[in-house]
Amino acid sequence: MSEIKMNELNIKEDERLNMLNHSCAHLLAQAVKHLYPQAKFWVGPVITDGFYYDIDLGDTVITEADLPAIEKEMKKCSKDNKRIVREEISKQQALEMFHDDPYKIDLINNMDENEVVISCYRQGDFVDLCRGPHVENTKQMKYFKLLKVSGAYWKGDANNKMLQRVYGVCFESQEDLDAYLQYLEEAKERDHRKIGRDMDIFMVSDLVGKGLPLWLPNGYTVWRILNNYITEKEIAHGYLHVHTPDLGSVELYKTSGHWDHYKDDMFSPMYNISENDENTMTVRQVKDRIDRERSDDVYVLRPMNCPHHMVIFGRRSHSYRELPIRIAEIANDFRFEAQGAVKGIERARSFTQNDSHIFCTPEQIESEFKGVLDLIMETYDDFGFKDFKCRLSLRDPADTTKYFPDDEMWNNAEASLRSVLDDLKLDYFEAVGEAAFYGPKLDVLVKPAVGNEVALSTIQLDFLLPRRFELTYVNENGEKVTPVVIHRAILGSLDRFVAFLLEETKGDLPLWLAPQQFTVIPVNPNIHYEYARDLVDKMMKKGYRVKLDDRNEKLGYRIREAQVKKVTMQIVIGDHEVADNTVTIRRHGQKESLTLSQEEFFAAVDREITDKELAK
Q1: Which of 332, 410, 415, 587 is least surrounded by Cβ atoms within 10 Å, i.e. has the fewest?
Q2: Four-point Cα dihedral 311, 315, 317, 319, nearest 10
Q3: Residue 319 has what pLDDT?
């Protein structure tokens, strides 16, 4: 039996699978060269879930319908059992060997043979520039599968030619390959984009813009419930909610430091320039000009909210007795993600952050850190998240240049964070050297049903940002001193959190969160309509999200449609229900039905919603 855990698989980090998949990328290239002699090859690296090769086929376009033929040729090359031989060559030899492939020539011209050994690997009639290592012969690559085809710009630059990227994966046994392909099918079924489409959660439109999802009524219902849920929780924990603009001046981001480090990920500035400059200058040139000029009247869509919150804290003086001050916001943010990186509502260019900044004294770091963790744990209990661990990112004390220079602050802060984690008996590991310049950080890594761990919640200490905004409070000695800022996100992005929930539950959201909680279905609309209508009216008065399906369709059809839409409960009304003043309910995904009196039904539903019970 295979010992590979597909949910934890990282082919790139597995030495044996890395070598096997790297070799299989060459097998793919050999087969493509046989079938498409005009093919030119860029790079074919190993990635976490297999390998890919970027290929230039001229005017020929490969589709997924062509993959079986390429696989067949790969199997033929594998059966030839050719030895895979490493050859070390000079730069001149490499240029001569690959003289007809401009992509390889580009790679070779960027190599310094005094610093690196230039090598290639040969297998039968195919040779490829490569550092290696590789398996010994082509026969060792038996169990592979080509997965998909996509486009990729040469060197990732949109100004360059679009190449064709063929993805694949290779294992040491058919059993492992089959298990992985089954895992991929499960991932497809859980893909939030598919579920979101089936449930009418959100849509995307090229006309609106790539990476700009549109929340449909069902999706906005979920979004609104989450918004209200986390806002009420934060208020109960002493947070003060604010509302700030979706944009800010460039000068704001210069003050915070984000402009220097983050401007390439921001949308283009709103900047008045001459018509001639508009026609001749690139976005980069405009941003470089803004770098050199005072920019109070130049605006950008904000990529994060912390600068606005710094300004709110700095509007007046504070005493140490007022601290901690916890400012929170459900805020819209905008980041110009690469087009190939956007993915539904999981990663978008427009999203909403569950954000907060806590202003506290150094002595309050430990208690505030614990308070945030308590809030995270309460939230995870409500959603049933049990499989998670924490990553504590710390500074490397030996690196005297990378981190904010205050040894006492660092030492005390890191000790406080460890102490809280130990007291709460949370599973955590330390990542020394992974802290940001301005302070240690905690990520809560949740294990999903499929895929890699997801950092849903974060807590980041910041010693620098309050200094950049010259924020102070008056301490017990009457001195003005700088507060510590704790950035924290519980749900993170609401958009990504909804995507995570859809994939974890396959859309079977708990009753309190479901966009449509009930469908009431009269067996015969002509006979049972009045009772069904009266029931729906009662449910709507109680705030339930319910629809009456009295269409002239067969009962089975209406029930199946409710199942596809993942309506939490279907309520079927027939002769017995009308006569006995009862309801018969059937939960999504279950075959059994349950008949209750109306009083029992309303009591059970109210309890399930109030207690935020998990999906049954």
Answers
A1: 415
A2: -60
A3: 96
